[in-house]
Amino acid sequence: MQNQYGGSAGPSSLRRVDVAGRDRVRPPCRRRRLPARRAAFPARLARKCVLHSADGHWLACEVAPDGATRSQIWVVTTDPDDRDARRIDRWPAGAQEGTAELIAWDGTHVAAILTGEDGVGSSCLIDPSDGTTVVLDRRSGGRLVDAWAGASLVRVGPRGYRDLMMLRGLTEIALLPYDPGSTTDAGIILDDHGPRRLRAGLEGDLTELYQPAKSYGVNSSDGYVRALIRSENGADHARLLEVTTTPDGVSYQVLAERPGHELDEFTVSDDLSTVAMLWNINGASELQVLEYADKTLHEPIPLPGMVASELSISAGGSMLAMTVEGPSTPPTVELVNPRTREWEPVDREPSSGPVAADPTLPARGSRTRRRDDLPARRPGRAGSSRLQRVLPTSTRGGHHRIPAECPWLGRIWPSVHARR
């Protein structure tokens, strides 16, 4: 069996997690040089996603028992003396269990989607200490993207035309202009702490000093909320936008775009100093860093492998973690300091299994055409920040499973895509 690896950069750059095998999660110890420890799960659980809490105390894991199609959410602490794993997704008494999907952390609460037998997803916040659940939104086709300090982002719409709505208490806000056929599918709500002078008035010709929305009540529409989102709105390829909502309306600006190429993933540090991005360049990943304060875009950082995914960042932006893989290298967790551009090796058990020769990527002139010319989907359009991997053997929700020895196939066949 080939080991699975995944990474999550904790709030401190001294913390990291390396997930290996199918039934063990190795939370990081609080000092860099201490060896990794293992948290024991009661069953064989195939890892799907791992995320640190904002305070670094909890580690949430989305897992599939015995490789089943239904997933669960378990938590472990980063306390070296606590090896217990706890399941926190709960279902009504007498009802058949559905599937739980880990989305993000909202402070000390887990943001998740619980989907029952009716196929309708409930966007929830779950207390990891006792499993108490609060429902934020419930709708057919709705999908929670992020939640923070009373605001949440929910993806709506069918495949091929997806948009993000911001929910603030009882208010639902559309973020971008009407653009049929575009996809806006990923976003992160920023944790702003200070006032900002923003445009105001019906024509936007005035300015007003706004306080962060979290300064007001949960159901208030006062203050401002900012978010970074990945969107094709008004463009031919996915790019990074900043949106700002106030009681007077919504504004947005382009932060980063690469003509002819898709933005696959992005993440932002808690102190809002650093934005890390993974671009899809003709089927291969490219890592680039944006200094958010002055919008400085640095040259790409060379990757140790062909394809990267599951990007995460420390609170201060001094360390990036990601899963790197390729045709001749199995998936492994790698760390890089975005300021020194130096990669740090991660202690891991060697994986075994067959490998193949490095493939030849499509020539630049053979890329798929713009979405206006051809309805076929391109890399990065499938509505997920994770890499799309496709082979004929189908699994849950339209996703497809590929052989462990060929994890790169979905990225070098850009004309075929998994349905989200």
How does this model look, in words?
Helices cover 1% and strands 42% of the residues. It has 420 residues and is mainly β. Strands 1-2-3-4 form a four-stranded antiparallel β-sheet, with no helix packed on it. The longest helix has 4 residues, at 409-412. The chain is globular and about 55 Å long.
Task: Throw out a few tags for this protein.
single chain; 420 residues; 4-stranded antiparallel β-sheet; 30 strands; disordered C terminus
Write the layout of secondary structure elements.
Blueprint (H helix, E strand, L loop, with lengths): L6 E3 L6 E5 L3 E3 L12 E2 L4 E8 L5 E8 L6 E6 L8 E2 L11 E8 L2 E7 L5 E6 L6 E7 L3 E6 L2 E6 L6 E6 L2 E4 L9 E6 L6 E5 L5 E5 L14 E7 L7 E8 L2 E8 L5 E7 L5 E8 L2 E8 L4 E2 L9 E7 L6 E7 L2 E9 L4 E3 L64 H4 L8
Antiparallel strand pairs: 1-2, 2-3, 3-4, 5-6, 6-7, 7-8, 9-10, 10-11, 11-12, 13-14, 14-15, 15-16, 17-20, 18-19, 20-21, 21-22, 23-24, 24-25, 25-26, 27-28, 28-29, 29-30
Shape: globular
Structural class: mainly beta
Q: List the strand order in the largest sheet.
A: 1-2-3-4
Residue share in helices?
A: under 10%
Distance between the termini: 27 Å
How many β-strand runs? Answer: 30
Low-confidence stretches: 13-37, 366-370, 372-420
Number of DSSP helical runs: 1
Q: What characterizes the major β-sheet?
A: 4 strands, antiparallel
pLDDT average, as an integer? Answer: 76
Rg estimate, integer Å: 21 Å
Strand content: 35-45%
